[in-house]
Amino acid sequence: MLKLQEVSKVFRVGAFGGKTMTAVDEVSFEVARGEVVSLIGESGSGKSTIGKMVLRLMSAQAGTITFDGDDITKLDKRAYYRKVQGVFQDPFSSYNPIFKADRVFSMIKEVYFPKEDDRVWRDKVASALNDVRLDAGAVTNKFPHQLSGGQLQRLLIARALLLDIDFLVADEITSMLDASTRIDVLNLLADLKLRGLGVLFITHDLALGNYISERTVVLHQGRIVEYGPTEKVFETPEHAYTRKLLASVPQLHRKWEGV
Amino acid sequence: MTTTDPITAITAPDPGTAPISVRREALYFAVRNGKLLVGVTIVTIFLLIGIIGPFLVDRPPMEYVGLPMLPPSTEYWLGTTTFGQDVLAQFVYGVRSTFEVGLLAGGLSALIGMVIGFVAGYRGGLVDEVLNMITNVVLVIPTLAVLLIINAYLGIRSVGMQALFIGLTSWPWVARAIRAQTFSLRSRDFVDLARLSGVGTSRIILREIAPNMSSYLFMTFILLFGSSILIASSLDFIGLGPTDGVSLGLMLNHSNQWSALHLGLWWWFIPPGAAITAIVGALYVANVGLDEVFNPKLREL
Ligand SMILES: Nc1ncnc2c1ncn2[C@@H]1O[C@H](COP(=O)(O)OP(=O)(O)OP(=O)(O)O)[C@@H](O)[C@H]1O
Ligand SMILES: [Mg+2]
After folding, report:
1. What range does the record give for the signal peptide (chain B) (predicted)?
2. In Å, what is the CA distance from A204 to each residue of A41, A156, A180, A193, A249?
3. With CB atoms 3.0 to 4.6 Å apart as the test, which of A37, A97, B18, B104 could cross-link to B163 if both were Cys?
4. Rg (CA), chain B
């Protein structure tokens, strides 16, 4: 469904844009319908940049991204966003601080469902909130700073669910959630996956990636170092970086022993 | 979900939410800010003089209405000029046109500066470079020289034309400041989220970015208003003012031309000079007060 072919992104850095920095380097992978692909890598490896290119918030310098066979840059934006949505990494910066948080829902209504009856819409919002285990009364009519990071994050997931999406870019969507809500959200994704949703699951938590994804892409300094079925990547990692990554996961049954 | 009906839960308003209280807080500090109160009071007094004055003074400002060079009296409150014109009449019409020029020129330059600043800051890239170049060109244009040329060929006839000229030349610093702020706001995730919601560029600028700097935009307008008045008065004084009409600057220009100072006609030049100083000064003081209201760090404890 979503296919990246040798996609690269180069940022200009330095005072006069004289230097360049390759954040994403010839990345190719594919996400099929009803599949979760996790994108794993350390901080700064280019994960969010890939997500933003898929969401057309940034353009790629080279390579093509196709959705159902069409080059995404050629598609109408509104139609594209109806099918492809994203949840960003930083929930606090995802809300305009001077407006109420549930404005993210009314924006969707204004653009995509201007004619829909208010009551019907409210039902829809309430059921989306229910899906992400949020109590409508606790989160509506509040300003972003009055809500917790986890609540904000789940509001963003609910927002994406309001559109009948086929694909979700989930950029560390569970980073602010406690263990039990995290499982709820992951199970929600698993549910949606069964209904045919494709997910690009960006994370640096290997356990989460392992839990939810069919296939795994390991990114290191903008390059793919490992790409394959999740079990294979986790059991027989080919690249030294992946092995290092796996070795550095704290184990539940082992305690830290000071050096 | 508990027993609460989700629909009523959503519609139930929640009192005491933040920006309302933020706004209330701003108002609270606004009515207690001495600088702001003094500034606003002075400006309002002059504004009223400009609006109501011309209706109360029934003498035409530019005509011979009495003996020349009369000092202030109960008949002529501010005396008369060398030509027997009523200084009070000139003064109230002058205050009115001063506000007109400030509003028109300040509004125009705020508008141009905002449009260019927002577009350049939001779009970035080539658009930004082109707009930045235009801004820099206008910034380095020797305004006075251009005005002399325009005046020589066309003549500045009306207050409107003068305002147009001031408006067209004083926007660059506004554009620059707004561009910088827009640039930092546009990289915030909520702008991306609005784009993901299918919201168009102009709406994002107007409804996501601009509201985040509304206090700044308001203060910018106040400053432009004040500086336009000052520029207009200076132009009038050096003889580049509108050829027909009356303004505080023109009063100064005429009194200077006809040696009011040497003849001791203080009532001819002190009122307009004091009014310009008071209006512009009050605007700046109000602006400092506004800054304190909007910026909690500057509030005196
Ligand atoms: N707009 C930008 N301009 C310049 N450089 C950028 C920009 N956005 C990202 N970068 C750089 O690109 C690299 C990749 O950033 P990215 O946000 O994709 O990392 P990430 O893998 O998501 O990291 P994290 O796990 O911390 O979220 C970083 O080195 C970052 O500094
Ligand atoms: Mg990231």
Report:
1. none
2. 6, 20, 19, 21, 11
3. B104
4. 24
Residue bearing the CA closest to ligand 1, atom 19: A44
Pairing of strands A84-87, A167-171: parallel
Contacts of B193 in chain A (CB under 8 A): 88, 94-95, 104, 156
Pairing outcome for strands A62-67 and A2-13: antiparallel
Pairing of strands A36-41, A215-220: parallel
- Residues B12-40, buried b or exposed e (16+ Cβ, 10 A)? eeeeeebbeeeeeebeebbeebebbeebb
Q: Which domains does chain A have, with CATH numbers?
A: 2-246 (3.40.50.300)
Give CA–CA dist A188/A171, Å, rounded.
Answer: 16
Tell me whether residues B19 and A99 touch, CB distance under 8 A.
yes
User: Closest Cα to residue B98, out of B287, B251, B300, B288?
Assistant: B251
Q: How far is it, in rounded angstroms, from Cα B98 to Cα B276?
A: 8
CA distance B59 to B53: 11
Residue B13 touches chain A, beta carbons under 8 Å: yes
Distance CA B15, CA B1 (A): 22
What 3-state class would DSSP assign to B110?
helix
Interface with B, mutate which of A98, A125, A175 (most B CBs under 10 A): A98
CATH for B22-298 is: 1.10.3720.10
A96/B199 CB distance under 8 A: no
**Cross-strand pairs, A196:** none
Specify the amino acid at residue B16. Answer: G
Contact, A94 vs A88, CB < 8 A? yes
Instruction: Parse chain B into domains and list their residue ranges.
Output: 22-298
Q: What is the pLDDT along chain A (259 residues), one digit of tens a residue?
A: 999 999 999 998 876 767 889 999 999 999 999 999 999 998 999 999 999 999 999 999 999 999 999 999 999 999 999 999 999 999 999 999 989 999 999 999 999 999 999 999 999 999 999 988 899 889 999 999 999 988 999 999 999 999 989 999 999 998 888 888 888 888 889 989 998 999 999 998 888 888 889 999 999 999 999 999 999 988 888 888 888 888 877 666 666 665 4
